[in-house]
């Protein structure tokens, strides 16, 4: 922001917005957290301003870390490095380019490290690397989340290769928090470049960015000079990166504190864990109690557009859902949604296929058919759940994985295979519910679970009836015949032991009474999650592997019952 001072020392100061060049009354601009009310441009904050806006009043406790910065190289450009340091300290009142402290956000304890671009461009040198590593160590010892607000031009050139080494130092520090199961959050502010972007800024479990914040390894000017091309205006902005799966959330400054509080609350287990209202669990475990149904009609019912979607159930059966975006590899499939939520008070990770209720929604969500980025996003969220000890709930509703050329070119088969292996080894409870259609490996990639349920009109099969008819009968009109032969109805699946229980649907189907369907889903999930949460991580993995090892044995095929499992301590 450029300051515009009117005539006379007593008159008010104005600032000129760098986004739209609108003159703004300085006091109003400050009250608005330095966000332009005209165009929404987010001006840079100092580290003290950032902390003041984010943490609970009276909770900030600066960490007593020494800022060790030495002129090892005797570096001199136009000014000697020690002089630059002295000037930066005098100008900012800070010892280094980052401030570390204990604090609380809405009562949730957190270790926070806030970078300050005024201090030598927020550059990453030995002192900053040491402070970030020590903040991570404090979070590790005290077992509380770490929040890092980044603002940096990159590694500090005046410290040469020693500055470069801080990228590895800080990355290793965050790796220790991964091993310990401690949540890390990165708040990306403008700008975040170079060695900071390529280390701790992008290694956090959840990456939140302010609107318009720029994030990248090489800066725009360097790239344009290197490739001799003009880059798009939105290049490297938070919104650009959200679309490409590298950022979870883009949050305006006035909502940041609330959103960070939600993320911190998502991993805080309340005393007593989940609660159950004591009503009968609405699941059927005896196939003889289920009515015979026409297989093709059940396929049609499973595909009805009025059936609640994953997002519908997240709004009705769960609370405090916080959607997280991106596979961190360049994509964010809209056909898969997921994030943290609460189930009867217990924090969980929920991941599901997402279709829609209208033609426009179906097209936007690719008819619930994920590409590799969808499965990789799901895998990222499952790894996060495994790290934080959160039960995983998956909601399956897909015709199958997207059968497009671009999906194949981006590794569709590999993405599905990696999910199957990952889910088999998760150390947390995993429960899957087929809420509509479960098609082929595209469904199974979210369904390697300890317990699998299905709604009464749901279907689950190796291939769609239409696909089966086209391949084996070479006649699309044979789809009803194929549906009967495939054995994908809820009754057949329960008889075969593929599913553990069937959730009866309200009269007319889940679309006729979505709230009652959501109540039944929640009532079915709560006791299962509670039961599985009492098992050790080793027992959960063994239980899941034994479940799938049993499919195809004579006992399973003849009776639909899986062999009794030995207890694993």
Automatic annotation (TrEMBL):
It is an enzyme of class 2 (transferase). Zn(2+) binds at residues 17, 20, 36, 39. Its main location: cytoplasm. Residues 13-282 form the CoA carboxyltransferase N-terminal domain. Keywords: ATP-binding, Cytoplasm, Fatty acid biosynthesis, Fatty acid metabolism, Lipid biosynthesis, Lipid metabolism, Metal-binding, Nucleotide-binding, Transferase, Zinc, Zinc-finger. GO terms for biological process: fatty acid biosynthetic process; malonyl-CoA biosynthetic process. One of its GO terms (molecular function) is carboxyl- or carbamoyltransferase activity. It catalyses: N(6)-carboxybiotinyl-L-lysyl-[protein] + acetyl-CoA = N(6)-biotinyl-L-lysyl-[protein] + malonyl-CoA. Pathway: Lipid metabolism; malonyl-CoA biosynthesis; malonyl-CoA from acetyl-CoA: step 1/1. PROSITE patterns: COA_CT_CTER, COA_CT_NTER. A zinc finger (C4-type) spans 17-39. Its EC number is 2.1.3.15. GO terms for cellular component: acetyl-CoA carboxylase complex. InterPro entries: Acetyl_CoA_COase_a_su, Acetyl_CoA_COase_Trfase_b_su, ClpP/crotonase-like_dom_sf, COA_CT_C, COA_CT_N. Residues 287-531 form the CoA carboxyltransferase C-terminal domain. Gene3D superfamilies: 2-enoyl-CoA Hydratase, Chain A, domain 1 (3.90.226.10). Its cofactor is Zn(2+). Pfam families: ACCA (PF03255). NCBIfam families: accA, AccA_sub, accD, PRK05724.1. Component of the acetyl coenzyme A carboxylase (ACC) complex. First, biotin carboxylase catalyzes the carboxylation of biotin on its carrier protein (BCCP) and then the CO(2) group is transferred by the carboxyltransferase to acetyl-CoA to form malonyl-CoA. In the C-terminal section; belongs to the AccA family. This is Multifunctional fusion protein. It comes from Micromonospora taraxaci.
